[in-house]
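Researcher: For the record, we're logging two predictions in this thread. I'll number them. Prediction 1 follows.
Model: Prediction 1, sequence and structure:
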Amino acid sequence: MSMGRPVETGGRPIEPPPPSDRRSRISRDLLRREGAGGVAIALVSTVVVVGALWWAVVHSPNWPAVREAFFNGQEFKESFPEIAQKFVRNIEYFMVCEVFILVLALVLAVIRSLPGPVFFPVRGMSIVYTDVFRGIPTILVIYLLGFGVPALALPGFPTSSTFWALVGLVLSYSAYVSEVYRSGIESVHPSQVASARSLGLTRWQALRFVIVPQAVRRVVPPLLNDFVALQKDTALVAFVVAVPEAFKQAQIIQNTDFNFTPLVAAALLFLMITIPLTRTVDWLTHRERVRRQGGASL
């Protein structure tokens, strides 16, 4: 029997498993052998590190004063419902801004990717917009718009500081998200455009039906990362508006009771939103990686 031929049993050759199946089986075997030990080591090391940090904190000289100022149970119990009620406004800010950011950023990315010298002026304006609003800190954009535009008292323009603070969030984040979209558009292979054009689609039809759908699907995880940051940055609106949201309400209670526990309560509310979103990003990233590896093994 030669080494290069499959073994025959009962007159029927036994074909070797595909390479992808062999790799999967080897990975499962390694995980089965090392999984229990790895989990035990990870659990023990985590307990040791967390325990050491906890011991260092609770045995610090000023821990009783810090516990009373930041982790007061009675203060938390009294302030949390009121702060949670105002947190609904942060969610509303996030939902409104997200819609406009997605649309404006996609328009900027499409303009940035238009070929040909005739589109150079609009490409240049898109580049300038992106560079400016990515270069200025978001809090400064909110300050400039939230205080500056209402002070102009322009006829026909809103004078609400809240409106212009949200506009500042949209302008700032659309610059970042447009670059995410653009990376997705540029990741689509040029042969996709050539195939679409050979089927009779115009350049705009190829962009709409072929390029953009693929680009959006590829950049969903980084888009969600940006929106995790957006949810947190809705707290920046508190610096220019009189109507309180979660952070501003926590500041009001903190200034009244001279205790920082309400700020911890506000932080927990943001964590309740951002941690599930972050885990969703990880799951989507893993799913996309598995999908691409599966396609590469075919």
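Researcher: Logged. Prediction 2.
Model: Prediction 2, sequence and structure:
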Amino acid sequence: MRLTDEFTISTPPDTAFTSLLDLQLVAPCVPGAELGAIAEDGSYPGTVSVKLGPMKFVYKGRLRIAEQDPVTRTAVIEGEGRATSGADTAKVRAVMEVLPEGAGSRVRMTTDLDIKGRAAQMGAGIIGDVSRKLVREAATCIEARLAAPADADPQSLPVAGSVGGVGLMASVMTARLGGSFRRLGRRGEPDAAAGASAAADASTDPDAPRSATTDAPESAPAEPAFESDGIETGSSGD
């Protein structure tokens, strides 16, 4: 599956690009990630753990910077891992672009993710939502670390919080439900407009059938409806 995420930071593009390729600097900002020392082949051993509701996923593997171009400020980061329990596997290839954004930078990540096992059963939608939430948390932490003085004590630099549990599942599901309600609201708008148009046509068409009560006195016009949170509500009267 392919995931696309982006975030902005106040650091200028060239400095941001160099800093983001310092994986030892960035790793503490990735929730649930632990990165070891660089190996002779240029890769880093690491562990990633995420708890989503009752399920916990822990992968151990390696990460490396496969390509980098400081002129275009693009880089390719590749990694693979295997679950510490079970036969689940994960492979990732992420293309990072650092673009100018005012005085700062916009960082765009395009990630090809290949997951096999229990995690894949959650589906691309849930995985994408979790990814976006983790990227937002990591971006906030990275911004703070880059803003710290050069001589700051490493132990005082911000790190990512713990990941997962009911809180992460709840926030993901809330976001998905909110999007569903917004889509349902937009879907209902054309139907309402079509109904109003049909009613207007009927009132001006001389051949349109009339109700048997057309001679009855007209009732007072209804109070206008108002909209609250996507739900139309009319006056209930006294």
